[in-house]
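Subject: Cellular morphogenesis protein

B.,
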Amino acid sequence: MKLSSWLNPAGERPPLLRISLSLAIFSQCCQAISFNSVPSANLDLSALGRVGLAGDFDGISLYQFEGQNENGFSTNGSQSILARFPNGGFESLASADAGIQAMCAFVTKDGTFQGVVVGGNFTSLGGKESPGVAMFNTTTSQIVPLPGLSGQVSALLCDQDTSTVYVGGNFKGGNSTNAIAWVGNAGWANLPFAGFNAPVTSITKASNGHIIFGGSFTSLGNTTSPNLPDQQIINISSTNITATQSSTTTGFSDPTNIVCKTNGVDGANNTWLLADNVAGSWKATFGFGFQPTKLRLWNTHQDGRGTQTWRYTAFPINGIMNFTYIDPATQQNASCSSECPLSSNTSIKYQDFHFVNLVGMNSFQIDISAWYGSGGGLDGIELFEDDIFAYAINTFNEPTCASISIASSATTTGPWVVSPSQSSSSEYLSATITGSNSASVVFQPDIKQSGNYSVNIYTPGCMQDNTCSTRGSVNITGTMASGSSNAFKPTQIFQTNNFDKYDQIFFGYIEAGSTSFRPTVTLSPSSGQNLLNQSVVAQRVGFTLISSTGGLNDIFEFDPNEAVISTADFANSTFDKAGMSLGTGVSVQTLATSGNTTFVGGNFSTTIFQNILQITDSGATPLSGGSLNGQVTTMFLNGTTLYVGGTFTNTTTGGPNGLNRVAAYDTSKNTWTALGAGVDGLVTSIVPLSLNVTANTPETVITFTGDFSQILAFGSNSSISVTGFAVWVPSRSNWLQNLNSTTTAINGQLTAAVDLPTGGSLFAGSLSSSQLNANGAVELSSSTLTSFPVRIQPSQSQISSSLAKRATTNQNTSGVVTGLFYNNGGRNITILGGHFTATASNGSDINNLVFINGSNPDTVTGIGSQISSDSTFLALAVQADTLFAGGTVTGTVNNGNVNGLISYDLISSTFTTQPPALVGPDVSVNAISVRPNTGDVYVGGSFLQAGSLTCAAVCLFSTSTAQWNQPGANLGGVANTLLWASPNSLIVGGSLTLNNANISIANYDAKAQNWTAANGVNAIPGPVTTMTAANSDASQLWVAGSATNGSAFLMQYDGSTWNSVGNIFGSGTNIRGLQVLTLTQNHATSNFVAANEALMITGALNLPGFGNASAALFNGTDLQPFALTSSTSNTGGSLSQLFTQNQNFFPTPGHGLAIGFVVLIALAIALGLIFLMVVAGVIAERVRRRREGYLPAPTNSYDRSAGMSRVPPEQLFGSLGQSRTGVEKQSTMI
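Prediction pasted inline below.
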């Protein structure tokens, strides 16, 4: 029969599970994901030279697109659909309340892109209830639920040739279990074989066009009923029982008389009767849902009374149920619905009625419409089901009055309380767990038949009880057969689902219960969760018997052209035969197809196949390079390279070293290759990713996600601590985490990826990502970030800690705290200080203070081992060519102890004579500043003495005399920041005391050598942690710190008054740095910030309406995120400060000439003015002489002698000593 025979047979509708769902959205043409840019920061850094950012981070991004954030990856089991920003980071497009395990792009036969189908164990996606599966529309970025399934989807295959999405997992839908199809725009369709009897984990399409299913199933169709049906008794005794038209006769009016009464004895307190000659009803309302298979009724014969006809109505569907039964008079099968008969024969103890349709309900009502004698009544009632459940609320389990020796039960420890069912299927237990208490529930089912079972645990949704923010994970353990070795592997289940869900926790053999053994499942909170008050819920555990006689074993080949499946065809399929050869109790976990070869990975071991094999047209064969010695859980085929992950550690034949849980198989050469030395734990997913690693050309890298904590050491590469995520770079034959390359920082989980036919890709998982993979420090231009040429290693505390690493005080910090550019004498040295470990150019470790010599091809050096590696450098300053570095610094230099401060010669790269050690209970130098035009180095921090000199909070070290001096007197406390407003005026911020009064800012007059409190200092609400000038002469200031109530404050001093900007920060904000920067474009006028300036705020910031950021720009009215950071410990990082080559933060308007040109021009102007002045003087003198009658002297020779003869000597010399008048008179005479 043709393909259309089961997809859309002529003359009849296909076997579809019809859904009232608008599918019009699928017909829209989906486009690639687009992103909205945010306004540019417009920083003008041109006057500052080189600019750096220092902090505690492992990745950093500039805020450029809406949707960027500092959120770490989720650790509560929830994942998202992800897309990539143009800058390389990832955006969450739609979040699920649990994991996403599969995605595929659904394109129909006519080429229409319908959207991306998403599958997993979620109950909500994008805020919409979507149990297990949904469609993502890439045009609208909206989620379209695909209702109809209940359970978990593990595998998807979008087949364009048939316009069909094949869906596999552990679920129920329509008349199918574990496999179903979504067809075109029509909706769900039952496959011809109605699914499988156990979960499906992988689906692929073979070269012949057939669909290959892999999993842990053994037959087609639904699950198997037990050998003895109707053996589980539904507990009616704990229900709310009511009746109408009951008799008023004492002992016969109570409708509960007939509950747990199976002896059929009439009498008071044993029988319930209706009033005489009236119809009536009996109703039971349960606290849980159930699906009954059989009803048993005992008729009464009290005083000739009895029920003749009745009907059963189920709620909440309000439907009258159909039954089959054996007519006691004819012993023939019969059926009934609205008027079911009961016999009045006293020899018939009870009658059984079997439900025709299996319908879920939580209450029912029996309406008696006809009766024997004077009225109706009953002596007993029981309900039975095939479903095997153990409830956390023990009264929901099988009734004790049924005298079942191994009845289902539960035992609890801890502060459990009963929660109402609300939108859930039943009431459940809930508990609030703190560090001082614990809780557990032990479930014991009534297993009457040994066999293979699928065990599911059911979890109520968190939205109905408003506990989503406090839900975490629980640990599930259990024992399924007698013997100490039969405990199954502990399983972690997240309870963060928005709506009800179930998770498979065990699949395999379970021994029937007996007086000597009971199967058990234990639920308890997982350890190590960062939840102060964790909400834990416990509802029920279900056990489903699985058939083992279906002719299949974990692999099934389906021909879409066949509308009817014959088990006789199994023997003709190379795939089905390969599955049957794997043995019992095994499973197939993953499938991958390349050409006419399909690779099969899983957990199986025979004399021929171990955990991996390949199937071609000629049959199944082992891989030529050898099988693997452990389970294969995931595979990804990239060209001719098959990447494999699991629990293996080598091939079964002893292949290459280093095949630890990950490996690559060359399908063209049939050889295994190690990926370094692998990882130290289970790998669960492999996803490709495009990254710029070695150049600006993207290349494919391979990501591995799983339960591992280390990338193992190999070659010259040390082991690296990770959080279950590693990236292999094929072009470099190394892990990305080992490469000192400039690329995107990624951490978290990737579980699936899909290429979009419209371009681009979507991913599934939970990631924290940053534009640049850099640790602790980066260089900043106006719009880009670049790494410094040094490798700073993430500290072990960053990796292992699950607590936030956002620093809260200067004394409790890690990463790079401070930086400095040293350029004296044409040198180019970048200095970074903090608490970190870096790698020197010679391969050795450098602790806490590093030098990058740009004049000597970026040679990286340190200061040696004389300073303790526990030190933290918090402040740097250069005086002449000597570096002064302070912090919580200890060590021994030149046989002398240092504490708080060191000096280091940058020319010779050696320690100079050290300042005497600072003294105090917790010595810390928080700020260093050189007094302008002097050699005096001022140091601020937490100390009481400098050497033997009493000198608290602020002290000066004179480089000319190499000794400490106390600046002024009466200052104490802790100084955090220093700022010179002029050569004689120092401003100090901190938690200070002056003359025994607490202040936040003090002024020091270096000429008068005295301290004064800053003007209006009492307006500042707490200690000042950072400060910067607000204008060029520092007559205006910006300060920030923590108020006494713990909140962050930011204030401006306008020259006369302190002004607060208001409560613009959220709780937990820690401001560590401030700096005014000029802009290339003006913003709106503000009372706080000039139109051509912005205030950069660094630290760990909580911006209301946005979230966490590490740097923000304040224009006087609004905060705009500027920089976002991340860390390997899965928390947002922080920025401590911006540091620059030049301190020209307030340049004059316009662009001046270079200093040399200015000097030359000034010299030329001066020379010109001098020349003009000389010429003017000469001219003026000539004019004066002419006015006074001066005449040119005769030049003829004859005149000389005559002239001389006319002046007698006495007249010539007689004028000497006369006044000018006399001289003039003499002149006249001449």
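The longest strand covers residues 361-372.

T.
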